[in-house]
Structures are given as C-alpha cells and as structure tokens.
Amino acid sequence: MSMNGEKIVAVLPAFNEQRTIAEVILKTERHVDEVIVVDDGSSDLTAEIAERLGATVVRHKRNMGYGAALRSGFEHAMKFNPKVVVTLDTDGQHNPGDIPRLIEPILKGEADLVIGSRFLSEVDETPKYRKLGVNTITKLVKISSYEELTDAQSGFRAYSGKALQLIMPAEQGMGASTEILLKAKEHNLKVMEVPIKISYQVGKASRLNPLYHGMDVISSTLKHLSMRHPLMFYGVSGLLALAVGIFFGAWAFNLYAKEGRLVTNLALISIFGFIAGLILITTGIILFTIISVIREK
Fold first, then answer.
1. Strands 113-117 and 34-40, how do they pair?
2. pTM (predicted TM-score)
C-alpha cells in the first residue's frame, strides 16, 4: 500500500473502547500500512488490546479530549513520512471498509483533505437531534470556510502529508474538527466530501452530553472565527449594538421631548448599547492590528 516509501497511516483516538477496538483495528489494517491508537487516558484494556494486535499505541496519562488525541496521533504519524493519514472513530460507528474511498482523491492529487459525509449517503440513519446539531455547526463553519460542506463534524477523514503539517489542531476538545476546517481554508487546501454510512447501532450511548458537546464545538468555532476575522466578527456585532443604542436613545429622547418624562429603562438600554458597541468595535480593531503584525512577522 505504501507509495515510494510514503505510507498510509490510520490514527484512531480511543477512550475506554475495549469492547470495539479489536474489530476496528483488524478491519483498518487491511487498508493501511500503520495503525496508531491514541489511548486518551482509558481506564480499561483499550491500550493493551491495541498493543497485542500490533498497533502503535500513544498513551495519555489522563483524558485530554478528542483534539489532544488527534494532535498526538498526527505528530506520531509524521514520523512515518505519510502519504495519507486517515482518522476514524473506535466505537464501531465508522466502517473501515470506506477507507479506500476516502484516500483515493488524495492519492490522485485531487484533494488535500477528504471528509466522509453521512449526509451524502443514500441511507442516512442519523438521529434527528444529532442531525440538527451537526447541521447547525456545519452552517456556522460554512460562513468562513467551505460553502459546499455538508458534514463539518465527521471524524472520518483523510489528510495528505502536506495538509497534516498545516492543520495541526490546538483545541483539546471536539472543537478540533471545525478548527481543522478553518485552518484548511486559511491555507487554501482542497477539500472534498465522499459519502459514508455511519452505524448508530453500536450498543453504547455517547459519553458526551449532546448539549455540552454542541456548545463546546460552537464556542470553539466562534473563537476561531473571531481570531481569523476580528473586524467582521466584532465590527458587525458592535455596529448592531450601536444601532440598538441609537434606536432606544431616539425613542427615549422623543418621549422626553413630547411628554417631559425620562423613561429610565429605555435610557439604560441605549447607554448599554452604545458602550457595548464601542467596546466591540475597539476590540475588533485592536485584535486586527495585533494579528496583522504577527502575520507580517
């Protein structure tokens, strides 16, 4: 499978997956040259099973999060001079048999990053609550990355060696998935999606609270958007706040002029709007200046 000494490597983040890890590794190694399991502080036999099956195991002493596991896996994968690095979940939801479909566009030079999209599949079994969450996050990411995206939260992805050096995630949690896409856009990487089928009949509910998961990803996405486009992010918010201040200020002034009474609530909202707007606009200008200086260096 390796090409001119460049290998196809799979990175499998894992946390307490002793029930499914063996099957995932055995099915994955049919399509790759190296399997790296990142044991993210498991308290069960996940790491021991992976080692017995011949996988390279990178251990975290404590649970650090999905993004941290990806970063550790990517850093270790770089040692193999990879042509392609594939990531997939170890809970059995992803089918390793789809790996050839994901890596093909990279091997042909058609893409730098390929995402397996559950929403492009002819059979989509995604629960409604999960679909709503993923679609909301995807729409948010599309604002500042790739307009054609359908599944910004898919963990089943393939990266070229070139892409891997440019998109190394800093986020430790689930926000790493969207951070990677924003970095890919920043570096003008070619991104494609291919259809995959995800099985939600894996017999184990997610350990993450869906609401907490969603808020974690959204807050991470907003943070990165604000850092990459500070004038747009803070400027637009600031102008909206100023508009609110002007509207309520004009309303309060009009009532005072006609009736001679000052409506305290309207005045306070107006003052708050003005102050918030000025703070947001000033923040955007300062961040834009700092980021511009850093980029020039």
1. unpaired
2. 0.76
